[in-house]
Amino acid sequence: MEEWKEHFDSTKIPKYRVELHIHLDGSVRPETIWEISQRKGIHLASSSADYCSSLVTKQPSNLANFLAPIATYLPVIAGDEEAIERIAFEFCEDAAREHILYAETRYSPHLLSAEGFPPEKVVECINRGLKNGCERFGVDIRSILCSIRGKPGWSKEVVELCQKYRDERVIAMDIAGDTNAVTNTSEEDVEAFQSAYRLGIHRTVHAGEDGPADQVRFALEHLFAERIGHGYHVVDDDALYRRCLDMDVHFEACPHSSLLTGSVTDRTAKHPIVRFAEDRANFSINRDDSTLIQKTLDDDYELLRSFGLNDLHFARANFNAARSAFLPDDEKQTLIDKLMNVYGVPTL
């Protein structure tokens, strides 16, 4: 992409983006959670402001602590048709405010289900919310269905749901939770991902976030992962990292999240995302869980700028995201064309 440096208009960089790793169930407006809890008579805190503040991860910790607040509010939303559709609709509005051209949001249908309200109904509610939101706010949002490690039967059902709703904005599957892929990804999970591969269902995998690089190897070799969620610790294994560079594996990087989850702890060392940028790795810039971080994409870009990245790195990251999106080829090319037009780039 060096050949179009001279055509590059950096003033447009903050305006139009592609985001591939953001959890819908981790990106609910705190005010929405509060309003729903009030409607249901569920006590969360003494005030809306107090509750919003309690959700924010302020200091680096570990992944379990980082995710803990989600367990306090998912029961407020789970099994509630109106609430589930609402959070999907509001996600689209928030994406428009972030100047997002295209995003893939992921969620666990099982975590939002309840007795008498199966995962299938969750998907239908979110599909409606996304459809209505996209039409209303002029954005393009697709969804990825997440399984959770250690939950028997969930991965198989996720594959079935991806297959059933693949023509309704559901475009891929993921597996999240404990990222110790070798010991905690069951044979059942492996079989589900291999089934997804045979069915032509796209696959991304949380791996190498707060655990060793070998998780990334496992995801590529056993789960047939096309993209890696986070993957920071892949740089700890030089041979594997070089292999990923050669294979053009896409890393869904989340700057603020990487620090707050304790996934990257050594502030004196070069951040893995900086390595990705310097080595021209295929990576994108994403928010992960905006409810918990309460940062904008502008904030994530500015954090990376403080690490030494610049506008050209950001442009590459957005083109990386576009060409690594789980879209049909014709729609992917349309998205790339939009970015080329936005950035004033004649060719790639």
Instruction: State mean pLDDT (0 to 100 scale).
Output: 91
SSE pattern: EHHHHHEHEHEHHEHEHEHHEHHHH
Give the oligomeric state. Answer: single chain
Beta-strand proportion: 5-15%
Q: Structural class per helix/strand content? A: alpha/beta
**Amino- and carboxy-terminal Cα gap:** 6 Å
Q: How large is the radius of gyration?
A: 19 Å
Please give the order of strands in the largest beta sheet.
1-2-3-4-5-6-7-8
Q: Could you name the ranges where pLDDT drops below 50 across 5 or more consecutive residues?
A: none
Give the topology, please.
Blueprint lengths: L16 E7 L6 H11 L7 H8 L7 H5 L2 H8 L3 H17 L2 E8 L11 H19 L2 E9 L5 H11 L5 E7 L4 H4 L2 H13 L2 E6 L6 H9 L4 E4 L7 H10 L2 E4 L1 H6 L11 H7 L3 E4 L4 H4 L3 H10 L4 H14 L4 H15 L5
Parallel strand pairs: 1-2, 2-3, 3-4, 4-5, 5-6, 6-7, 7-8
Helix pairs in contact: 1-2, 5-6, 7-9, 16-17
